[in-house]
């Protein structure tokens, strides 16, 4: 049975993302492991050592009580969506969020990590948010980030952002498998500089890959990579974006968009990050 890890902070953003976790689990016959990671407070008072144990006990108990109260809410979400048959287990962990996600992903052989993410509030931020971006960059699993204003809709049009390189093919095959589950159409998109001389001869391989499948290959020339991608999402009614993670900071660079574009476009589709 496949496994989906769902880190949660009990927020509305997180509960909204839980619907995607449930729908995917139902589609691929997977179980969900929800996890909440908390940290103990930093105590800097002098002569407080005799109280530390008591403070930590209270903190841990408080986190446990919060989690215990949230579990039925998640179960209710499953019931409301007629997905209460999905197997769900719950983990409460003391530690650092990204570190613990990495550990449990490795230990439990997690197939997907699904998490909600808040939007940017200033130009210096990416829309993904620092935690989700770090998870996408560092965790060796397929990571699905659900923006806060993204309301669930069936995945019918999937966008795979690519440079049509050989190293993209394995990720593309995974996307193709997922698209088959959803019975979705795939658009592959390469955005390249108009000054770039295209010496890429790999399109032949990609044309072989898409034979007899519901897939279209696109190449668009332009300097405004983000704007072109956002236009494409809007024009082709994309329900999910997928991309291969080449290197760290890839997502920060890709989605550092101007205020005018933020006003013109609302990025409200899930993003799937795939490592090699």
From TrEMBL:
SUPFAM superfamilies: Adenine nucleotide alpha hydrolases-like. InterPro entries: Rossmann-like_a/b/a_fold (IPR014729), Universal_stress_UspA (IPR006015), UspA (IPR006016). Residues 1-146 form the UspA domain. CDD domains: USP-like. Belongs to the universal stress protein A family. PANTHER family: STRESS RESPONSE PROTEIN NHAX (PTHR46268), UNIVERSAL STRESS PROTEIN UP12 (PTHR46268:SF6). This is Universal stress protein.
């Amino acid at each position: 049975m496949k496994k989906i890890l769902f880190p949660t902070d009990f927020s509305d953003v997180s509960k909204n993302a839980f619907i995607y976790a449930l729908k995917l689990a139902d589609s691929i016959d997977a179980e969900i492991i929800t996890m909440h990671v908390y940290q103990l407070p930093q105590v800097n008072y002098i002569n407080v050592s005799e109280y530390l144990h008591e403070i930590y006990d209270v903190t841990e108990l408080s986190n446990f009580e919060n989690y215990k109260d949230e579990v039925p809410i998640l179960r209710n979400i499953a019931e409301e969506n007629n997905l209460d048959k999905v197997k769900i287990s719950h983990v409460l962990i003391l530690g650092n969020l990204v570190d613990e996600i990495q550990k449990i992903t490795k230990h439990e052989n997690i197939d997907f990590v699904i998490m909600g993410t808040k939007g940017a509030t200033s130009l210096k931020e990416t829309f993904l948010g620092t935690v989700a971006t770090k998870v996408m960059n560092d965790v060796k699993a397929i990571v699905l980030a659900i923006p806060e204003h993204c309301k669930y809709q069936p995945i019918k049009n999937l966008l795979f952002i690519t440079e049509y390189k050989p190293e993209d093919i394995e990720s593309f095959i995974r996307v193709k498998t997922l698209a088959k589950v959803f019975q979705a159409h795939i658009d592959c998109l390469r955005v390249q500089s108009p000054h770039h001389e295209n010496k890429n001869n790999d399109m032949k391989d990609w044309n072989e890959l898409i034979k007899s499948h519901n897939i279209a290959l696109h190449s668009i020339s332009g300097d405004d990579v983000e704007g072109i991608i956002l236009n494409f999402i809007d024009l082709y009614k994309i329900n999910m974006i997928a991309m291969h993670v080449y290197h760290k900071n890839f997502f920060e660079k890709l989605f550092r968009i101007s205020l005018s574009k933020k006003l013109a476009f609302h990025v409200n589709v899930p993003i799937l990050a795939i490592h090699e």
